[in-house]
Each structure stands twice: as C-alpha cells, then as structure tokens.
Amino acid sequence: MAELLRVEVVYALPDRQQLVTLTLAAGSTAADAIARSGLLQAFPEIDLARSAIGIFSKIVKPETVLRDHDRVEIYRPLQADPKDVRRQRVEEGRSTRSK
Known about the structure:
CATH architecture: Roll
Number of helices: 3
Strand order of the largest sheet: 2-1-5-3-4
C-alpha cells in the first residue's frame, strides 16, 4: 500500500483565509497539492506565475516534494514595497515633528 501524506493548502486575503486539508500520495509536490486543493478555481485571481509559494513561511519551488503534515501557502503579490512604506513613514514623522 502506498504511503499517504496529510497536508494543508492555504490562501489568505486581507479579510479571510481558505484552508484545505488533503490526503495525497507520497512523492506529491507543492504544485500537486495546490492543483488538488481547488483554490485556483475558487480564487481565479491567483496567478502562480506571479505568486510565490511556501511551506511554513519558507519559499519553495512548485516541484518541492511534500512531507506529512506540511502546510503549503500561496502568497499574494505585495501591493507596496515594504522599504518604500518604511521610508514614507519616516518622512511623515519628520515633517510632523518639524511643525
């Protein structure tokens, strides 16, 4: 009998998240889990060509082989560069203090 893996696939939006638990055959990849999860159909805005994926917050390639109890995460593209946002906050803080 083939070994089975229990994994989760998750996609989060600002106001909600969707988590799907799957049972897959040993040797399945992150891409296999995402395809089987149904999340690509439920959220047509997901573009895996532009979105990174990870396992427990570590970026991985779609062909990464999964282990039992892995959580595959589909990340949304950043809306703003965090460095630019930080710089803008610093500038706003400076202008507020100089008044």
